[in-house]
Write a structure and sequence with these properties.
Order of helices and strands: HHHEHEHEHEHEHEHHEEHHHEHEEHHEH
CATH class: Alpha Beta
Number of helices: 17
Distance between the termini: 22 Å
Number of strands: 12
Strand content: 5-15%
Shape: globular
CATH topology: Rossmann fold
CATH superfamily: NAD(P)-binding Rossmann-like Domain
C-alpha cells in the first residue's frame, strides 16, 4: 500500500526511486516549504488521511545492518519508508542493495532523504509527513580506524537529542522507536547486593562501572537512551526503546564489525555471569515494527530483546567462528557456571509479541 501523492502516482514514484538508485542520484533534499505544504493539503483532503499518515515512517541510518532489516520489515508490512542518508557512500550502498535484491522493493513507496543527525532543522524537514520515526543509532567511529571510542558516546547523546527534538517539533510524528542496547541494563555494581540477580527492562547500567571498565559502547548507549527519555518528556513525545543483545545474522561480523567488537568488550564477564545474549537481526527488526504498531495503544517504555543466551560450548564456538575471536578470549578459561549468575528477562517483549501475533491470526 503506497502513499497518495499530489504530483505522482505510486507506480511512477517507485520507478523514480529505482532510477535514482541506479543512477546514483537517489539523494534529494526536502526543504521546499511550498511542496511540503501542498503534500500536506493533499493528504488532508484524502478520506483515509489517518491511515495514509500511519503508513509513512522514517528510518535513520537506514543503510546500517539493522537499519536495512527494519526497512525491509516495514515494506513487507505495507509501510512506506523514508530512509535518511547523509553522504554519497550511503547512496552507493543503497544502490548495491537494490541491485542485489537485498532491499525488498514492494508496491510501497521508498524515499531517500538527505539529513544530518547533527542538525535538528534538517531532521525536522526529513520527518515531515511521517507518523513515526525509527532511530537505529547505527554509528561507527568517524575516524574509521579505532572502533567505538569514548568520543562516540557524546555523538550518540547529541544525535539522540536531535532526533527526539525533531520528532517533537514535527506536526506529523506521533511515536518514536529508539534502538538502545542490552548493555544499558547489565553493567552494574552488585557488590552491595549480590542477591539481586534479575536483569529486566527496569534495570539500568551504572555509568561509573562503564567508565571504570572503559566500556565506551555501553556508556554511549546508556547516556543516549537516558538523554532520549529526558528529551521525549520535555517534548511530550511517545517513545519506546528496544535494548537488544548482540545483533547477529547472516555475515553479521562482516557487515557490522565495529558495533560487534564494541559490544563484545567485557565479553568474559558477560559470559561468566550468564549475560552474553544475542538476537537475530530479522527478529529484532520485527520487534521494532511490532512495538511501533502497539504504541497506538499502550506500548511504550523499554523492551529487552534477545533470542539466545550463549552459555554452552556450541554457542561460544559459533560466535568464535563468526567473529574470528578465540575461545579463551571469550570465556577466559572459565565456565559459565562459575561465580554469580544473573537471570536475564525479556518477558515484557515476549508478551507483547505473543499478543500481537494472536491478534493477527484471528
Amino acid at each position: 500500500m503506497g502513499i497518495l501523492r499530489l504530483e505522482e502516482t505510486q507506480k511512477a514514484e517507485l520507478e523514480e526511486f529505482r532510477r535514482m538508485l541506479l543512477s546514483c542520484a537517489a539523494v534529494h533534499r526536502r526543504k521546499d516549504e511550498d511542496v511540503l505544504k501542498d503534500r500536506g493539503n493533499a493528504l488532508a483532503g484524502a478520506p483515509d488521511d489517518d491511515l495514509l499518515l500511519d503508513k509513512l515512517v522514517c528510518v535513520t541510518s537506514g543503510v546500517s545492518y539493522l537499519g536495512i532489516a527494519i526497512v525491509n520489515q516495514l515494506l513487507v508490512d505495507g509501510y512506506s519508508v523514508r530512509i535518511i542518508v547523509d553522504n554519497e557512500e550511503d547512496v552507493e550502498k543503497l544502490r548495491e542493495m537494490e541491485n542485489s535484491g537485498e532491499m525488498r522493493l514492494t508496491n510501497s513507496v521508498v524515499e531517500v532523504v538527505t539529513a544530518k543527525l547533527t542538525d535538528v532543522e534538517s531532521l525536522t524537514d526529513a520527518f515531515d509527513g511521517c507518523r513515526g520515526v525509527f532511530h537505529t543509532a547505527g554509528f561507527v567511529d568517524p575516524a574509521g580506524l579505532s572502533g567505538y571510542t569514548k568520543v562516540m558516546s557524546d555523538i550518540e547523546v547529541n544525535a539522540s537529542k536531535n532526533v527526539i527534538k525533531a520528532c517533537g517539533i514535527s506536526s506529523s510524528v506521533r511515536h518514536c522507536v529508539l534502538t538502545s542496547s542490552l548493555l544499558t541494563c547489565i553493567w552494574k555494581d552488585n557488590s552491595c547486593d549480590e542477591s539481586f540477580n534479575r536483569i529486566d527492562d527496569k534495570c539500568w547500567s551504572d555509568e561509573s562501572v562503564c567508565l571504570e571498565k572503559k566500556l565506551w559502547y555501553a556508556l554511549g548507549k546508556l547516556r543516549a537512551e537516558k538523554a532520549a527519555w529526558e528529551t521525549a518528556k520535555e517534548n511530550n513525545l511517545k517513545l519506546a526503546t528496544i535494548c537488544p543483545g548482540l545483533i547477529t545474522g547472516s555475515k553479521f561480523f562482516h557487515r557490522n564489525p565495529t558495533p560487534t567488537l564494541a559490544y563484545l568488550k567485557g565479553i568474559q564477564e558477560m559470559y561468566t555471569k550468564g549475560l552474553l545474549a544475542t538476537v537475530d537481526v530479522y527478529r529484532l527488526a520485527k520487534a521494532h515494527v511490532r512495538v511501533f504498531q502497539e504504541m497506538k495503544k499502550a506500548a511504550c517504555g523499554r523492551f529487552i530483546c534477545f533470542d539466545q543466551l550463549l552459555d554452552s560450548i556450541d554457542g561460544i564456538e559459533n560466535l568464535a567462528r563468526e567473529t574470528g575471536l578465540n575461545m579463551s578470549s571469550i570465556t577466559g578459561g572459565a565456565s559459565s557456571s562459575n561465580g554469580t549468575r544473573f537471570e536475564l528477562s525479556n518477558g515484557r517483549l515476549v508478551n507483547l509479541m505473543s499478543r500481537t501475533w494472536r491478534c493477527n491470526d484471528e
